[in-house]
Amino acid sequence: MDDLYRDYILDHYKRPRNFGELDPHDLEAHEYNPLCGDELGVHIRVKDDRIEDLRFQGHGCAISQASASIASDELKGMELERVGKLDADWMLELLGIPVSATRRKCALLNLKVVRSAVTGDHAWPA
Amino acid sequence: MAMTQAAAVAGGLDVKADFPIFERRFDGRELVYLDSAASAQKPDAVIEAVAEHLRRHNANVHRGVYALAQEADAAYDGARRRVAAFTGAEPDTTIFTKNVTEAINLVAYAWGRANVGSGDAVLITQMEHHANIVPWQVLCRERGASLRYLEVDDRGEISLQALDRELARGDVRLVAFTHVSNVLGTINPVAEMTARVRAAGAVSLIDGAQAVPHMAVDVAAIGADFYAWTGHKALGPTGIGVLHGGREILERMEPFLTGGDMIASVDFQSATWNELPAKFEAGTPMVAEAVGLGVAVGYLSDLGMERVRTHERELTAYMLERLSRVPGLRVVGPPEADRRGGLASFTIEGMHPHDIAELADRGGVCIRAGHHCAQPLMRCLGVGATARASVGVYNSRADIDALVGALMAGREIFELGR
Q1: Which of A28, A42, A58, B305 is the 20 to 30 A CA-CA neighbour of B408?
Q2: What's this model's pTM, rounded to 2 decimal places?
């Protein structure tokens, strides 16, 4: 078995969860990965200061698509305040594969776009 | 494998042993380097020349009267003569820059700010590298000029008729285009293009980054007002680029960067400019890098640029043929190797280019993935990114075989079938 392209990564890549449009939505953002030009957008519906539902839009590599798909289920129901404090380690642990320095941004693009929608902060997760 | 190696030697160059980097092993595997369009590997002769210059001949140039400084002067000026001769240019009109990006910015600032105004147009093509787009965007925005694009057709080529139509509008001041596309591989008809641009009274600039290292280029015969290329793609060091310009146009231009070495004299309030090429080389130049580039072009000349082109064209034809048999793989750009430089950009259905490059690396194969600094072109092609394999003098058919093997293995990991 490949270290990076494990079964569950490829499964999320080929059948990403929570992808598409979400209308109506309360928050949205759109971010780029400058390395490859990949784009990812997000729609978020908010209820009681929590993410009630969300959908990602965009295409990307297996790492970025699987990261967004895996994160999406975790983010549903999460308090907005906590979302704003999520860091790179949260995402990388969730992903569970060794990500090289050059692919780090692939893995973190979804968290960047979600944090951007929730807090307006466009910085890459540290 | 043994047969393909033999065929490669019989059909072309066999110079891999001149390049020490190929002694390296990655997890026990040999290095299969198919990313020369990004940066070429260096022959021992270049590495030694740079080291020898720093070890025995280093001093600042154009200042010292002592013997060592004169050796440094001779090395730098000699490198310029060799580089100019390599491309059929004059040493005085061969300006050393940091890279192609700086060369194009030099023209955009020093020529563009003085000659492009409100209502004028700059014409480029959809297949340009960001280095030949963004400087013109900034110039046009600043001067109230318009930036227009020549379209790339389905074959990955641009049409001379479209160029004629654009020039007939009468507002085009400058046409900037690549000699060989870093994504499509397309070899543009540069001499025909510059003749049309000149006839229309406009100025031409050619980005030769992907041409000069791979085919015989005679800038005098091409007839562009400006022709830029870079050292590190031509087996030379990083940090050294070249701008060839027409003598008259360079003499009429104001300097780009100002400071030491580019002046004739400096008063408290003003200064006068040095002669060509020093007028455009402010500050201490990249002496050791120029020396290295001089040796690099000497190495290529000794191989013979016709042989280099033949070798790389045959490898490219082989690569196109092998890639065409990989399921789901689509190559962009002209289908014939005769019409393209030594590279192939491609996509594979069901695999993102980043994953393609990552999986190629599992087989020790270095290829590039991404937008190749050509995002507008990616939009025209309807893709976000491509994978790109590109060849150099040291490559052989065995390298292409390794690439195809790695792609097929990658398809298995992605469960796409063989």
Answers
A1: A58
A2: 0.94
